């Protein structure tokens, strides 16, 4: 009952955040996160009565951490953080100055590269797609064995952010009614996300839909909608959400195959991606949806962290010094600081006392703030951050709407801050790698442009010489 009251309070505060009109872009991301992780929790058990005993026991094992007393701690903490954020945004006068900073040049350059597009861009994108490819069984099987294929250039040439840049560039052109619409940008984003889904990622298409929704709302938040166009947009979003659910269900079937089978061929995959067994079979469908709901409501880490269910003292292993050491280890080849547990090993070690190769637990900003500042200090920090955001938001909004690349970078960066909440992931994965991938893409684009231009001039001269000879 106590947790339910905190949930209702959180919903009211989110509504007040939108009514305030402050930091709308950021508040959309916060609202999606709270809805996804915290407010889906009451609905995760709605299909349990339809599940067979075997599947029900599996679901119960996934939900073993949940109890009402612990839930009250987590949800009242969430309410305090949201309330502090609201107070920080509305307490002081809204600032209208929007020239505190300009969009960094790297983002304008990648905007130009993606917008120009053409064959050179498609070649550069395709080359990076090929070089970054890893067999799905290598990644998921490696999380158990500790062995897997090396990541190309340590991940700094990843397409993860460039994929969203393509999507946002397409949306910006559509919003500004620029012709031609460059549908290939949307196609590239879809192909990349679908490839991740086929590799066993349940959230690949879902995240594409969510990031689409964030930027689409940012571009159209003040638009005066006609009923017909509004219904059309809502229908398209519902279709996209349905596709995200279906892709998640199919990816969920592939994950155990990749993880526990050493050799798979296309026939094995197609045999398991059976529409009738996944969608048409009621028990399998409801079991799959229940699993996805548990995947969305990823609160296990917050329950353990905020209720102090630890085996080893968290501050001994998770503090500014050890975090900095792990960040440095992530950024350079080899281990500058040997013997330091990675962030993907740390949670299981502290809270379960187990040594594992890899487990990507979502600590969340809520968990990290509690570990650093406690239940009372965390809202104060959020309040001060909100005041700072309120002051600089007009400039931030101007940059987000002007540059699709900066908007994509910021969206992924902020999502990971609140969902993962650890510097060990945010700095290498959401700051260093995207910027380096932009530089690499721009370089490849220039190389291909130069080569294609040279080939074109050579062919043109050859035609002239041939004509003169005749």
What's the arrangement of secondary structure elements?
Layout: H1 2-20, H2 24-37, H3 53-62, H4 68-90, H5 105-116, H6 118-131, H7 136-145, H8 160-176, H9 183-198, H10 204-220, H11 227-260, H12 266-272, H13 275-280, H14 282-296, H15 300-306, H16 314-317, H17 320-331, H18 343-352, H19 364-402, H20 404-419, H21 423-469
Number of E strands:
0
Distance between the termini: 92 Å
Structural class: mainly alpha
Give helix % range: over 70%
Query: What overall geometry do the principal axes of the alpha carbons give?
Result: globular
Assembly state (oligomeric): single chain
The arrangement of helices and strands along the chain is HHHHHHHHHHHHHHHHHHHHH
Number of helices: 21
Radius of gyration: 24 Å
Major sheet description: none
Q: What's the average pLDDT?
A: 87
Number of domains: 1
Give the strand content. under 5%
Low-confidence stretches: none
List the keywords.
mainly alpha, 470 residues
Write a structural description:
With 470 residues, the protein is mainly alpha-helical. The chain has one domain. It contains 21 helices and no strands. Helix 1 packs parallel to helix 4. The radius of gyration is 24 Å and the shape is globular. 32% of the residues are buried.
Q: What is the gist of this entry?
A:
This protein is mainly alpha-helical and 470 residues long. The chain is built from 21 helices and no strands. The chain has one domain (2-469).
């Amino acid at each position: 009952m106590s947790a339910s009251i905190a949930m209702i309070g959180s919903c009211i505060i989110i509504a007040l955040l939108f009514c305030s009109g402050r930091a709308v872009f950021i508040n959309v991301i916060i609202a999606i996160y709270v809805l996804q992780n915290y407010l889906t929790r009451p609905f995760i058990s709605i299909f349990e009565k339809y599940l067979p005993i075997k599947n029900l026991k599996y679901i119960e094992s996934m939900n073993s951490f949940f109890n009402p007393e612990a839930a009250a701690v987590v949800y009242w903490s969430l309410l305090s953080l949201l309330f502090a954020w609201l107070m920080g945004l509305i307490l002081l006068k809204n600032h209208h100055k929007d020239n505190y900073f300009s969009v960094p040049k790297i983002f304008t350059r990648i905007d130009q590269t993606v917008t120009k597009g053409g064959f050179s861009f498609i070649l550069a994108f395709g080359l990076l797609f090929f070089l970054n490819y890893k067999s799905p069984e290598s990644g998921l099987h490696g999380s158990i064995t500790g062995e897997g294929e090396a990541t190309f250039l340590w991940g700094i040439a990843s397409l993860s952010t460039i994929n969203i840049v393509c999507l946002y560039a397409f949306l910006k052109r559509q919003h500004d009614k620029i012709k031609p619409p460059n549908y290939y940008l949307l196609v590239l984003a879809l192909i990349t996300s679908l490839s991740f889904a086929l590799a066993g990622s349940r959230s690949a298409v879902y995240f594409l839909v969510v990031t689409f929704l964030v930027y689409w709302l940012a571009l159209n938040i003040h638009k005066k909608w006609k009923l017909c166009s509004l219904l059309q947009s809502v229908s398209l979003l519902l279709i996209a959400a349905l596709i995200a659910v279906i892709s998640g269900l199919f990816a969920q079937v592939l994950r155990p195959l990749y993880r526990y089978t050493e050799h798979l061929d296309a026939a094995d995959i197609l045999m398991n991606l059976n529409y009738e067994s996944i969608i048409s079979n009621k028990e399998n469908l409801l079991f799959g949806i229940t699993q996805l709901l548990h995947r969305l409501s990823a609160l296990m880490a917050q329950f353990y962290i905020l209720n102090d269910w630890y085996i080893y003292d968290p501050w001994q292993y998770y503090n500014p010094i050890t975090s900095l050491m792990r960040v440095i280890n992530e950024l350079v080849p080899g281990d500058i600081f040997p013997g330091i547990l990675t962030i993907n090993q740390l949670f299981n070690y502290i809270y379960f006392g187990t040594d594992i190769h890899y487990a990507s637990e979502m600590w969340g900003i809520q968990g990290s703030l509690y570990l650093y500042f406690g239940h009372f200090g965390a809202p104060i920090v959020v309040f001060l951050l909100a005041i700072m955001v309120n002051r600089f938001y007009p400039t931030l909004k101007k940059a987000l709407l002007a540059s699709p690349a900066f908007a994509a970078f910021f969206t992924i960066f902020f999502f990971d801050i609140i969902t993962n909440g650890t510097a060990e992931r945010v700095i290498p994965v959401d700051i260093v790698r995207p910027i380096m991938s932009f530089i690499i893409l721009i370089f490849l684009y220039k190389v291909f442009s130069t080569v294609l231009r040279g080939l074109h001039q050579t062919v043109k001269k050859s035609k002239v010489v041939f004509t003169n000879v005749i």
